[in-house]
Specification:
single chain; 490 residues; alpha+beta; DNA Methylphosphotriester Repair Domain; TATA-Binding Protein; Endonuclease III, domain 1; 5-stranded antiparallel β-sheet; 4-stranded mixed β-sheet
Length: 490
Amino acid sequence: MQLDAEICSSARLARDRRFDGRFFTAVKTTGIFCRPICPARAPLERNVTYYATAAEAVEAGFRPCLRCRPDAAPGSPAWGLVSTTVRRALQLMRSEREAQSLETLADRLGVSSRYLRRLFAEHLGVSPLAVWQAERALFAFGLLRDTDLPIAAIAYESGFNSLRRFNGVFKQIYRRTPSEVRREKSPGRTPSPSSGSDLGARLYLHYRPPFHWRKLLEFFRARALAGVEQVDGDTYQRSFALDGLRGVLRVRDDSARNCLVVDVIGEGGVGLYRVNQRLRRLFDLDADTEEITGVLAADPLLAREIERSPGVRLPGAWDPFEYALRAILGQQISVAAATTIAGRIVDRYGESFTGADGVAHRLFPTAEQLAGVDFAGLGVTRARAQTLRTFVEAVLDERVDFTEPELDSWCARVTELPGIGDWTAHYIAMRGLSMPDAFPASDLGILQALGGGGEKAKPKQALQRAEHWRPWRAYGALLLWQSLKSGAEE
């Protein structure tokens, strides 16, 4: 992956936070690689090499800096520049608790293992296993330094089934054992309380500023699902289940450290690495806001909204299936009405449990739990109920695949189902799958925002204008919705 050495040099010498996570500086004389914001004395240019990802630096034989902690860097936007197959592979690798063999991963992607290995070498310069090990070891380092979890639990939560394998991989990358790192634990960072068999941990999810936490909370507050989600003041909370293990998480912003602070209370073994990955997508923490703003600000309407609230992020979804059903419910009705009906689905079919906090919580039902459900008596039309049933069946028989990150093929596949049109397909892609170029052109709010003067634009006009926003049309749609509210407040 190509980097501009001159830009990287200027950024690291200035310790520019906008470049944090965009590249890493490897120092040949020490064998250490650092973030651009590392407070250590800057090495001479002739002694450094730049890498786009931490995995590349690790594969080249460099070990992570213990001072600037590459494990705490925001995700690299470079991942978004790779081929569709590599993106799908990365998504699958990050969604599973433990490692898959190269053959299994390739089979799920419909390619040969040899071809997949070649794609990773071409686009990332490292193998799939090297990416998996580097990312999991870096995450484990954060748990060792920032929590009191036992080392065996950290190994499991990071995706290692064998403590021996965890120790071996970790020592290979950090040149020290997990026990040695634990003795150097970071001061001033305490985990969430845990009791009995419950797991309690505090995660720190870093991002590149600017980051508009209040805007995100406003968006989620209007759509919070009773019993499942809650926005209280400046805190977001939701219940969740992974592989049948249940938990509750609470998220707040620490703008001074440019990170979200997440308290997780759950049944041991929930897989904190996967919790971390889902939250990064939910709050769009790895967005390349500078690149996005540079493209969208060329449109005067979007430029005004960006100036009002810089650091636009695309609100994602904890679970694509959950959000797909909510998008279907939202066809031709208000956000409030769709949220109310979704709440009825939770009340009728969702599992309830009492968390370690002593509070009753509910879970959104899975596709398996909704198999054969007729959705009658929820306040939806018979046609909408049939669409919900058809979609659930399509998920269960794998006609709908949520690991498909290519927009056109996703929309073509899902619109083959009766009752699902282009708006629904793009809206699921935009929110449920976090596809940055999704654009529901027929959305009423988008057409109103683009029309101006009380007039509505036509979907064809919206598509033509949004052509200049590629590949960030989803962010443009979000800014258009925000502009309607901003205009009403003026």
